[in-house]
Design goal:
Length: 533
């Protein structure tokens, strides 16, 4: 199957997708790595820049045919020939509209005039480029053209020297079964003397379906673009068509393309980056979610055997592997698999604890990322008992005024509430924790360091707070030092959690020391007996 890539011509016609000459060369190199058969490099008569791009691609790319587009009118084909003459395999592509709608309203030509122009410029191409060159003729808006007239045109251009006849569904109007019948009629008429090609647009979302129906009806050249880029809703996408042929070989016996499919992701990312056209997450083959599994049932299936929910391997399109993403519907096994990917082997209660938190986080933000999970696991790894539990908090803060915070803490059987003011919401809450704690434990926390940072990106990022505190003491003993981490989408909450975690470590260490332990007992509970710097 011949793959004709028109990313640099029809793809570049997408509004806003314009590329510089250097960028077009970069894409051409990616297309060579993909091993497409033909690169349609541009429309040389449209601008000096496009002429230069086509000409440079024709000079610099090897092992692939380079095509240039031209209208069937004086000047265009000459410019195209001039641009591609140097190519290893020049491929001239001339076109004219053949539907009555286009002839009457756009070209203001009769059918006979269009037929004459088609023959004239195909003949010109054959004479200008010689007998071995590829001359392709396209009947623009073929799918809305009177089929009898269309067949007359194709027969005439093949007689005049066209080696490929292309059937464009220019406005994405065709339906697969109907399009297959049209392609079949063209194949029956000229299929022995020319390659029948199709060029499908995606206005009804049927570009790939129409292209594959055309293959089954005898088409042997497929015009496609990377990421389905192209005029309006775009063209049939290279990755969908190529992977369709590869994934369902019994439907297309002996008709695989030679495209190196493991280059697909690279080409897709490059085209997206250079054109600024972001690939939608649910885009087939190259979308960010195309190989991501989120629901518990799917994750369970994929872990047991990827064939349950994957019809092609991620490696076959150039990805390292599929991803298990964590969302509200994910299950424990999925999370366990994901954590294993990240290097953590968790089971039982440890897994349950991380799972509960990950699911709660998935409720609070759109996506739980790897960084989120690492932060949750890290926080659990450093947990040291819950002798002091935070049962509630609130804070008020306003511009220019002091903040007031209140907390409710449970220490063993005892519950205490306290309120305090501070020079910010975090300071007010930290003072309130001390107010609540001191009467029970007999000491206050002294904050030595406080740091907050976003662990993940975006407006619903998690804030990770880190504190280092020591226990106030008037005994002359070395103070106990402890760190605490907190993690939440609410940075005040993560700050408070970090403080309470540090308080817990200090409380556990102090209790152990009072029971006759020494520094080792303190360290076992996450606090350190030592001097403050
Ligand atoms: O969509 C179309 O008809 C085209 C032709 C020039 C092939 O792009
Ligand atoms: Zn097109």
């Amino acid at each position: 199957m011949r793959i004709f890539d028109t990313t640099l011509r029809d793809g570049e016609q997408a509004p806003g997708a314009g590329l510089t000459v250097a960028e077009k060369l970069e894409v051409a190199r990616a297309l060579v790595r993909l091993d497409v058969d033909v690169i349609e490099a541009g429309f040389p008569a449209s601008s000096p820049g496009d002429f230069e791009a086509v000409n440079r691609i024709a000079k610099e790319t090897k092992g692939v045919a380079v095509a240039a587009l031209a209208r069937c009118r004086e000047g265009d084909p000459q410019r195209a020939v001039e641009a591609i003459r140097v190519a290893e395999r020049p491929h001239l592509h001339v076109f004219i509209a053949t539907s009555d709608i286009h002839l009457k309203h756009k070209l203001r030509m009769t059918r006979e005039e269009a037929l004459e122009a088609s023959v004239r410029w195909v003949r010109y191409g054959r004479e200008a480029l010689g007998r071995d060159a590829e001359i392709e003729f396209s009947a623009e808006d073929a799918s809305r053209t009177d089929p009898e007239f269309l067949l007359r045109v194709y027969e005439a251009v093949v007689d005049a020297g066209a080696t490929t006849v292309n059937i464009p569904d220019t406005v994405g109007y065709a339906i697969p079964a109907e399009f297959g019948v049209l392609v079949g009629r063209v194949v029956d008429l000229v299929g022995n003397d020319a390659v029948v090609s199709v060029h499908c647009h995606n206005d009804l979302g049927l570009a790939t379906a129409n292209t594959l129906a055309a293959v089954q009806a005898g088409a042997r050249q497929l015009e496609v673009t990377v990421n389905g880029l192209g005029e309006r809703a775009g063209n049939a996408s290279l990755e969908e068509v190529v992977m369709g042929l590869r994934t369902r070989p019994t439907q297309f016996p002996g008709l695989a393309s030679r495209v190196q499919t493991d280059q697909i992701m690279n080409a897709s990312r490059l085209v997206s980056y250079l054109t600024g056209f972001v690939v939608q997450p649910n885009k087939a083959i190259v979308g960010g979610n195309a190989f991501a599994h989120e629901s518990g049932i799917h994750q369970d299936g994929v872990i047991k055997n990827p064939l349950t929910y994957e019809i092609m391997t991620p490696q076959s399109v150039g990805l390292a592997g599929s991803t298990l993403s964590i969302g509200k519907l994910s299950g424990r096994r999925g999370l366990q698999g994901k954590l294993r990917e990240l290097g953590f082997e968790l089971e039982g209660e440890a897994l349950d604890a991380v799972y509960r938190e990950a699911i709660a986080l998935a409720d609070a933000k759109k996506e739980v990322t790897d960084a989120d999970l690492l932060a949750i696991v890290g926080q659990h790894a450093s947990e040291v008992g819950d002798g002091i539990a935070l049962d509630g908090w609130s804070v008020t803060s306003s511009h220019g005024g002091r903040s007031t915070g209140s907390v409710k803490l449970a220490v063993g059987e005892e519950t205490r509430e306290a309120e305090a003011t501070g020079n910010g919401p975090v300071d007010a809450l930290y003072r309130a924790v001390d107010e609540a704690l001191e009467p029970i434990v007999g000491w206050r926390l002294v904050l030595d360091e406080y740091e907050i940072r976003a662990v993940t990106a975006g407006e619903d990022a998690q804030g990770s707070a880190l504190v280092r505190c020591h226990r106030s003491t008037d005994t002359g003993e070395p103070p106990l030092i402890a760190t605490g981490h907190g993690l939440s989408t609410n940075i005040i909450e993560s700050s408070l959690e970090a403080y309470v975690t540090a308080a817990n470590k200090l409380h556990a260490a102090a209790t152990a020391a009072a029971a006759g332990g020494e520094a080792g007992a303190a360290e076992a509970r996450g606090a350190t007996a030592g001097r403050l710097p």
